[in-house]
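Explain this fold:

***
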Amino acid sequence: MPDLIHDGDSAAAVSSLRSAVMLLGRRLKHQRVDESLSPTEMSVLATLARCGSATPGELARKEHVQPPSMTRIVALLEAKGLVRLEPHPDDRRQKMVSQTEQAEAMLLESRTKRNAWLAHLAEGLDEDEWEKLRAAAPVLEKLAHL
């Protein structure tokens, strides 16, 4: 693998990728179903959907936020009926956070809306561009979860 920071072509590609991902991410954030939820709250719900129940500490690590911040986020989501807290099966001092059916339905609606928006954008690509983007999707997903 070349030096991605100092090799001119690679550095330019990294910069272009960063810029495109950031712009696309910002545009996707505006395709929300529930405007009352922050992007961080939506991310926590998506993490619970992907990974299942977790302690607030585990969620904080996965979301790269401080535990006190996650405690506040979980409390807000619980007040909105989107998560529930249950006793930890092995440690009575801890709670497990899981999403509610209301959160599952909202996430499905949100994903459907965002997918439709993205599909509409992709219709503007030619066949070769679409195939390249399709091939890149698993790599981008891997990068997102590293």
Observations:
- The two ends are 17 Å apart (CA to CA).
- The longest helix spans residues 8-29.
- Residues 123 and 130 are 8 Å apart (CA to CA).
- The helical segments are 8-29, 39-51, 56-63, 67-79, 101-122, 127-144.
